[in-house]
Specification:
Blueprint lengths: L1 E5 L20 E2 L2 E2 H11 L4 E6 L3 H8 L2 E2 L2 E7 L8 H5 L10 E5 L2 E3 L3 H11 L3 E7 L7 E5 L5 E6 L10 E9 L15 H11 L3 E5 L4 E3 L3 H13 L5 E2 L10 E2 L3 E3 L4 E2 L4 E2 L3 E3 L4 E2 L4 E3 L2 E2 L4 E2 L4 E3 L2 E2 L4 E2 L4 E2 L4 E2 L4 E2 L4 E2 L4 E2 L4 E2 L8 E2 L1
Parallel strand pairs: 1-4, 1-7, 4-6, 9-13, 15-17, 16-19, 17-20, 18-21, 19-22, 20-23, 21-24, 22-25, 23-26, 24-27, 25-28, 26-29, 27-30, 28-31, 29-32, 30-33, 32-34
Antiparallel strand pairs: 2-3, 5-6, 7-12, 8-14, 9-12, 10-11
The structure holds guanosine-5'-triphosphate.
């Protein structure tokens, strides 16, 4: 079976972390986000991946090459962004007549049972089946109304409070028959959610399948941290590159993942729910929890990072605090004694030498 992965999005909120890679390659427990998905697809009976690429295509091609985890990888390159539907049409020649295929948003992490989803699709006999996830607040997503037989009756994109037809949302994972390509206009940007699924729903050819398990769209910092926590929890133990450079008095709390070439100074405490990429240097007396640190970053003595994401090759000098959903871009420097908190975003290569205590983006 083939799976087409939409991997060409711009990823607005997490852009400060994208100097060298698109969000599909962001680390989760020291592996690229998309690696987790590819492994599960291989286990779920998929043999070929069509990677629909646009923004930062080269980084993906270089990272995956022609095969990964026994999957063949074919790249479908867009000259300009084709949205979520256009890439499916563009891949027409790569898809096999009569065989349904999976379509997945590349920036989602989940443990949805793909085999079960495909079986359900075949049982129902529609043109497409959407995996649905039950969430407490559907307002950031596309909420779906189903009838008793599992037909999708309608979609409400980003519903206002009280306007959602249900708490079931479109998980960005579909099984699609090739005939659906007839519903996608050629050669332009198309939104599957807004232009294709509503027509299929009207014609009674679209089904929804309630999937269980974890599901996170990593589009915003809080969700990315949540995805990291879920992946670490499902692999409970601390994973370590090499222990030699971690001071004996430092503590690493489960679940956490530490890359290779990471140095940790005396009396520092790392974890729980923390991923530290390769070649990060942590000084002494630091506290890092519920956080993600990209490669090559330096965290100076007595600094603390809580519920935050720090991009690659950033420098936090001494006594720095970064907290509460804040996002520090690649190559940023934060000078001695500065506090960054309350969801502040710092764009790449900035130097910040005054504390920021209210939500703000530093461009
Ligand atoms: P935002 O800019 O934050 O909205 O993120 P996004 O660009 O990732 O958009 P969205 O979350 O709607 O995208 C859903 C999925 O489709 C993601 O996996 C994107 O990478 C992917 N995607 C979005 N636009 C395109 C596109 O033009 N081409 C391709 N190939 N994939 C796309």
């Amino acid at each position: 079976m083939k799976a087409l992965i939409l991997a060409g999005g711009f990823g607005t909120r997490l852009r400060p972390l994208s100097c060298t890679r698109p969000k599909m390659l962001f680390p989760l427990a020291n592996q690229a986000l998309l690696d987790w998905t590819l492994r599960r697809l291989a286990d779920g009976g998929v043999d070929t991946i069509i990677l629909a690429v646009n923004y930062m295509a080269e980084a993906l091609v270089r990272y995956y090459g022609p095969t990964k985890f026994d999957l063949g990888i074919i790249y479908s390159r867009e000259e300009r962004p084709l949205g979520t539907g256009g890439p499916i049409k563009k891949a027409a020649d790569l898809l096999t007549d009569g065989d349904p295929f999976l379509v997945l948003n590349g920036d989602i992490i989940s443990n949805i049972n793909y085999r079960r989803l495909v079986e359900y699709h075949k049982e129902k006999g529609g043109l497409a089946t959407i995996a649905l996830i039950r969430v407490p607040d559907p307002s950031r997503y596309g909420a779906v109304e189903l009838d008793a037989e599992g037909h999708v009756l309608r979609f409400v994109e980003k519903p206002e409070k009280g306007e959602a037809p249900s708490n079931l949302i479109n998980a960005g994972i579909y099984v699609v028959e090739k005939d659906v390509l007839d519903y996608i206009p050629d050669g332009r940007k198309v939104s599957t959610e807004k232009e294709v699924f509503p027509i299929l729903a009207e014609e009674g050819k679209l089904y929804g399948f309630e999937a269980h398990g974890f599901w996170v769209d990593i589009g915003v910092p809080e969700a990315y941290l949540e995805a990291n926590r879920l992946i670490l929890e499902s692999h409970r133990e601390v994973t370590m590159g090499e222990r030699d450079a971690v001071d004996e008095s430092a503590e690493i709390l489960e679940p956490s993942s530490i890359g290779t070439g990471v140095r940790v100074g005396a009396n520092s405490v790392i974890g729980p729910n923390t991923s530290i990429s390769d070649h990060v240097h942590v000084g002494q007396g630091c506290r890092i929890e519920n956080s993600i640190i990209f490669q090559g970053t330096t965290i100076g003595d007595y600094s603390s990072v809580k519920n935050a994401i720090i991009g690659e090759n950033a420098t936090l000098e001494k006594w720095v605090k970064v907290e509460s959903g804040s996002l520090i871009g690649d190559y940023v420097t934060i000078t001695d004694g500065v506090t960054i908190t309350q969801g502040v975003t710092i764009c790449p290569s900035k130097t910040v030498s005054e504390s920021i205590l209210q939500p703000r983006q530093v461009m």
